[in-house]
Automatic annotation (TrEMBL):
It comes from the Bacteria. It comes from Undibacterium terreum. Keywords: Cell membrane, Membrane, Transmembrane, Transmembrane helix, Transport. This is ABC transmembrane type-1 domain-containing protein. One of its GO terms (cellular component) is plasma membrane. Pfam families: BPD_transp_1. It is found in: Cell membrane. Residues 1-150 form the ABC transmembrane type-1 domain. GO terms for biological process: alkanesulfonate transmembrane transport; cellular response to sulfur starvation. Belongs to the binding-protein-dependent transport system permease family. Gene3D superfamilies: MetI-like.
């Protein structure tokens, strides 16, 4: 499956995400749909790369033990591959989330009548640095909150891991 999909995904990944904007506007019009698709395109590749990297990095010995226990493919994926690849997958999600914020602003700067990107654009056009700075600060706060939520999710999902990060949290 990877031999079929990966070359196509790598070719699509080489295209700058903002290059899709004219085509998305032509196909989907000027409403929320092209913005959502642009955000999805921008966030997809870090998640994909993290997932693929995590799966490729699974220790072969884990697969061999699972085969000794005669785990079928679904059980192998759920019980071995997913837990072993989860750290990389979550890193990809975290990177994708930060890019999603960036693409949301970019999409709203291009064609929007509301939202933080519109607020940035409107503040620039009306020479209101206070509005621009307020929008930037709000984006920073929202980005930090979403990143902290991802870190909490990561620590909850990976609490089983015996890692340096977990040992640092346990220190007094």
């Amino acid at each position: 499956m990877e031999l079929i999909l990966d070359p196509s995904f790598q070719a699509l990944r080489a295209i700058p995400s903002l290059a899709w904007v004219p085509l998305l506007l032509l196909w989907l019009g000027i409403d929320e749909a092209p913005k959502l698709v642009l955000i999805a395109i921008g966030a997809f590749f870090p998640v994909y790369m993290g997932t693929v990297s995590g799966i490729r990095g699974v220790d072969r010995k884990l697969i061999e033990v699972a085969q000794l226990y005669r785990l079928r493919r679904p059980a192998l994926a759920y019980r071995v591959l997913l837990p072993a690849a989860l750290p990389s997958l979550l890193t990809g999600l975290r990177n994708g989330l930060s890019l999603a914020w960036m693409f949301m602003v970019a999409a709203e700067l291009i064609a929007a009548s509301k939202g933080l990107g519109y607020l940035l654009s409107d503040g620039r056009e009306t020479s209101r640095a206070d509005i621009v700075l307020a929008a930037i600060v709000l984006l920073a706060v929202l980005g930090k909150i979403s990143d902290r939520l991802m870190i909490k999710l990561e620590s909850r999902l990976l609490s089983w891991r015996d890692s340096f990060a977990n040992s640092v949290q346990d220190l007094p």
